[in-house]
From TrEMBL:
Transmembrane helix keyword on record: yes
Cellular component GO terms, alphabetical: endoplasmic reticulum; membrane
Protein name: Phospholipid/glycerol acyltransferase domain-containing protein
Domain Phospholipid/glycerol acyltransferase: 181-292
Bias (Basic residues) ranges: 1-11
Biological-process GO terms, alphabetical: phospholipid biosynthetic process
Domain of life: Eukaryota
Gene: Dvir\GJ19019
Amino acid sequence: MTTSSIKRRRSPHDARASNDGDGLENDNDNNSSTRSSRSRSSSGSSSSALPNNSISISSNMSKRDSEEDTWASKGYSYINPFVHRIEIDSHIEVAKIYVLTVLLLPIRVVGCILSLLSAWMFACIGLYGISMEELQAKPLSGWRRHMQYWTARAMRMVYTSGSFLYIEMKGTPASAKEAPILVVAPHSSYVDSILVVSGHPPSIVAKRETADIPLLGRIINYAQPIYVQREDPNSRQNTIRHIVDRARSSDDWPQVVIFSEGTCTNRTALIKFKPGAFYPGVPVQPVLLRYPNKYDTFTWTWDGPGVLRLLWLTMTQFYNRCEIEYLPVYTPSPAEVADANLYANNVREVMAKALGVPTSDYSFEDVIVMSRAREMKIPFPGDIVEIERTLDTLDLLDSQRDMELCEMYLKLTNTDKLDIITFAELLQVDLKNPNLHKLFALLDHRRKGTVSLKSFLLCSLFCKLKNSDVITFLRALIKLYSESSQQIDRESFTRLLRHGGDKLNEKKAQALFFALDTANVGHVSFDMFAQYTEKQPSYKFLYHKSEHIRRTKANLIKATPTAN
């Protein structure tokens, strides 16, 4: 389109309005206004005030759009395993929570503390006279092994005090000789550690820092964990070697428990398994966790209630249930022994089938990408991975169309309410392409039948440049906020730097502007900003590439839609 004005057309989309809460603040420009739909923080919600009448529960974010020829209307949706909501809209239930907060919660807290102290005492007795080196060198035996059992019993009382009165065991637990490794899924909560205390305690894989946690550190040490040294560049290889050594050892080591998903999900699908548990090539026993309760008050995901709120809601239920199911031991084939990823995928398929849920191409690394997007104030951070995959299917990741639209952005009008027809013309994509409708649906969080061009450009440029340093990303966004990179006024400068991450808040951005505008002319250049910050140690974060979220296009596996 060569015109500088975008004519609005009647959208074919239904105007069903709702917001899933994954949006993010956008600012108003002179010629466009993108509405703010700021999501509530997944981690910050723990410190918020107690709710009034409702407390949100929806562990699945399904995408929506028109009743006509759109992606969602074809009967497909995608599962986002990192989003969780709790919704308690019954006045009786809400009243019960408040009453039990006063009458039952204090008793439960005291019970948890006393049980934890008992477990710590047993652990201290069991660890008396043994060094950390000895603890890692050979398995405990004799009276120390028996004391482990009593430590686990005391920890079980922590969960009992916290409302988990019923644990149902299904299947037959294998011995350490039959299956040296327990592969547990889905991993959805801090409560999942209930598996470790429900029987004879197995070992775990834990961060080295956990050994220094008051009370819990001694208890974790007593379980003879395999510690991960994050500051050690060889940590991954060393951890795998320790797992292999224990799995193949003739000594009586306890089984090693591994949550192969590597992060918490909402249990709607099994995400990619990390291959660590499968490198040894030994038989594993899959273990399933279920929580068949009326309300899911313990799922702790990237976007959802914080841990304190979850603890409060969990401990103000009369009781909660947990099911632990031991599936038959999975013995790998020669091909699986040679390929840990194949082994992991096949075990995941078995577990997903037993759970009755699909598998997902999401992984722990995707959580890092979404967290990065949220930090950089990108719209819809919870959907950014799906947006990236859709851009890839449309060949827009390799296209320069988004950069061209950035150049002309401030010359266009009505950019905050693009219908599907105008959106297709701007992107130069066939209107009948189903992936275009999918992208439109992902960006149309309010189900208004319109999307914001700025939101699209921010998402597209983030997906392209997420592995670049911050300064490169900010340079690409200049034309969204200023006509020229040589004359950026204070308001535009502040808006631009908002996408530099949490370390560049509005106060710091304005201070930077005044530090650069020494002539008091009311504007600065981006080059001045880059030259100034490059010399300042406090701004080195602007020049660090995000190695931890680096993914190549070859690793962008297309998400498989699931039928509604």
